[in-house]
TrEMBL record:
Keyword Oxidoreductase: yes
GO molecular function: NAD binding; UDP-glucose 6-dehydrogenase activity
Location of the UDP-glucose/GDP-mannose dehydrogenase C-terminal domain: 314-416
Domain of life: Bacteria
Native organism: Lederbergia citrea
GO term, biological process aspect, one: polysaccharide biosynthetic process
Protein name as annotated: UDP-glucose 6-dehydrogenase
Record's catalysed reaction(s): UDP-alpha-D-glucose + 2 NAD(+) + H2O = UDP-alpha-D-glucuronate + 2 NADH + 3 H(+)
Pathway the protein contributes to: Nucleotide-sugar biosynthesis; UDP-alpha-D-glucuronate biosynthesis; UDP-alpha-D-glucuronate from UDP-alpha-D-glucose: step 1/1
Annotated residues for binding of substrate: 153-156, 205, 250-254, 258, 321
Matches recorded under InterPro entries: 6-PGluconate_DH-like_C_sf, NAD(P)-bd_dom_sf, UDP-Glc/GDP-Man, UDP-Glc/GDP-Man_DH_C, UDP-Glc/GDP-Man_DH_C_sf, UDP-Glc/GDP-Man_DH_dimer, UDP-Glc/GDP-Man_DH_N, UDPglc_DH_bac
Active site: 261 (nucleophile)
Amino acid sequence: MKNLAIVGTGYVGLVTGVCLSEIGHNVICIDIDQGKIDKLNSGKSPIFEPDLEELMIKNIKSERLYFTTDHSEAFKNSEVIYIAVGTPQKSDGFADLTSIEQAAIQIGLHAKRDVIVVTKSTVPIGTNEKIKNIILQYLVSDIKVDIVSNPEFLREGSAVRDTFYGDRIVIGAECQDAANLIEEINKPFQIPIFRTDIISAEMIKYASNAFLATKISFINEIATICEKIGANVEDVAIGMGQDSRIGYQFLKPGLGYGGSCFPKDTNALFHIATHEDYSFALLKAVIDVNKKQQTLLVDKVKQRFGILEGKKFAVLGLAFKPNTDDLREAASIVNITRFIEEGAEVIAFDPVAMQNAKRILPATVQFAQSIEEAIHGTDAVFIVTEWKEFIDFPLNKYVELMKKPIIFDGRNCYSIIKMMGYPIEYYSIGRPVVNENYNK
Ligand SMILES: NC(=O)c1ccc[n+]([C@@H]2O[C@H](COP(=O)([O-])OP(=O)(O)OC[C@H]3O[C@@H](n4cnc5c(N)ncnc54)[C@H](O)[C@@H]3O)[C@@H](O)[C@H]2O)c1
Ligand SMILES: O=c1ccn([C@@H]2O[C@H](COP(=O)(O)OP(=O)(O)O[C@H]3O[C@H](CO)[C@@H](O)[C@H](O)[C@H]3O)[C@@H](O)[C@H]2O)c(=O)[nH]1
């Protein structure tokens, strides 16, 4: 059992803190956001994430998990300090390292014993060295500081599961004693550990996200060609995925990738390459394809209706993916904004993300309390996130409740064969249109 501190209680900090306490460590999580810490101390998770709150309460009760805003209290007994603060995208495309630098300064000022600083945040190549230099510059106590890069691979919506059953844990370090200790801390997870140097570990994180984003943009391009030639992209993806060298995962076509990671990390890697005088042409194409893909349904609906002015649209799904309340870079934002710009009225529904959506979406968007209320009397329904609630929704309800049943499904929630049994005009991604112009 080790005494650990985690700086930042966002997705990564909180999930890491909860899971490390669950495997027996004493964990103290720090955030500068007093509201967040108050909420956490009252046993409430600030994010919607399956299994997280229950596990968090359990470990608070076992007195292995604490939350504070006080860096000095958190660092005084910690053998290891994890940095899990945000690294958002700046307007120039590079990662904003302000929070990382602040965290490093606070470690320098408040660490009181020999410490290993572990970077969980996704950071540009060379940042761990910068972190070490900042800590040493601000160091008050006479202590030894080692740095370890330990990038995080969890996904929102399955973050706890990913932490316990991940494919690998990457540990990048110069000092092998420090790497040994981080390996020991993670042993109870029983996940394969890959050890490397710091710079390679930093690159593994960006390269992994860029590769997954490439798979998504690739299948989305294939989907567009499938629509033109009359093929079904889902069958194409299955036939491709059966080749174990390709694999099934991340070949789901849709409205492109959103979220707090792929968009910013692909941009950051592109800018890292440019900074090194290398034009990463493949990644540039991945990014451009994704931008176009996110608003594909706007193109489809304009083709169907001509002008959108005066139309009433229901948007089902606001989170960037199911099982999260996160709207960062969600396709819902660009689509809804475009619909409103084109003069349409929008009524939206999401099973968990509506509170966050109300802060982000244009003020004229109306919010429904149920799928039924959202689709009632609308000219078209847009499915933007593949929540189970939408997949399980009875198709005859669209027929009953809509003005004329027309669905634009950005996540291929329904089977084409099943849809053929209903008088619904159905447009999806990379698959044949069902009942085209049926309601015209
Ligand atoms: N969200 C994910 O699914 C995910 C997965 C893997 C890696 N990552 C990476 O992990 C990092 C964190 O991502 P996130 O989504 O958890 O971030 P986030 O923005 O949701 O949360 C960051 C938290 O850090 C706090 N913070 C900022 N400066 C601080 C300081 N000096 N001291 C204490 N707290 C401070 C903020 O108040 C905030 O609560 C990013 O680099 C991200 O790219 C994210
Ligand atoms: O076949 C697919 C898979 C995903 N997506 C989209 O891609 C985005 C990202 O999805 P996902 O990867 O499941 O969620 P994230 O929580 O963003 O996780 C990614 O980003 C994290 C932050 O770096 C990493 O830790 C994870 O390994 C990586 O999967 C979402 O908009 C999905 O809709 C698709 O369109 N098709």
